Hints:
- By secondary structure, the protein is of the alpha/beta class.
- The chain has a six-stranded mixed beta sheet with strand order 1-2-3-4-5-6, with helices on one face. The chain has a six-stranded mixed beta sheet with strand order 7-8-9-10-13-14. The chain has a two-stranded antiparallel sheet with strand order 11-12.
- It contains nine helices and 14 strands.
- The longest helix has 15 residues, at 186-200.
- The structure holds zinc ion.
- Residues 57, 59, 111, 130 line the site of zinc ion (ZN).
Amino acid sequence: MSKLAFHQYPCLSDNYGVLVHDVAAGETFAVDVPDADATLAALAATGWKLTHILVTHHHDDHIQGIPAVKAATACVVIGPAGIAAVDRAVAGGDVVDLAGEGIRVIATPGHTLDMLNYFLPGARVLFAGDTLFAMGCGRVFEGTPAQMWASLEKLMALPADTMIYCGHEYTLANGRFALTVDGGNAALVARMKEVEALRGQGRPTLPTVLDLELATNPFLRAADPAIRAGLGMDRASDAEVFAELRERKNRG
Ligand SMILES: [Zn+2]
């Protein structure tokens, strides 16, 4: 298994970009480019030479920096079909051989219909784009809640120790909502104390880990009896409970 180095950097108001570097393969890829200057600065700081970009979805705050970075580095852009800057279109079920990994492409429609997540099985790392956040999930803009739930179920089936990089630092607001529907969850209460301390110091709360999300993220806990009881939805399907949670978060 290759040894990979990861570099996460904040950009725009609350986005994160990530660089992944593999010495053995001589490759470096970026996941999304919210801001070209921030990505080029991160490359300069690490000394890594960009060879590829993996794109999660078509929203401007994930792709607007790609043309300038592509012009500066001549990298190859891999991502959903329909995005002008993409050189090689991929779809759910594809495997991308990159950085010594057979990177699994996972389609997670809901936030957008073109959303792709990328799972590195060797390193056990997931790039979740705007599908999954720490204690939260993306707003369902283009798909249906049922579709988004099915997408989250795919991520929930990954190894529990999977490290998860997300597109945004939304953790504090997500956690405050989580407490309104799952306030009896001791793991959630404890996590919020840590998150408040980190954010108070201006430090990132990401990446996260899947088992922590399974324990504290209400959007992955639609089957939880206490959450269901609080919503008065004991007999509903998991997808219906998820839809109600998402609706409440939208209103909050
Ligand atoms: Zn988005």
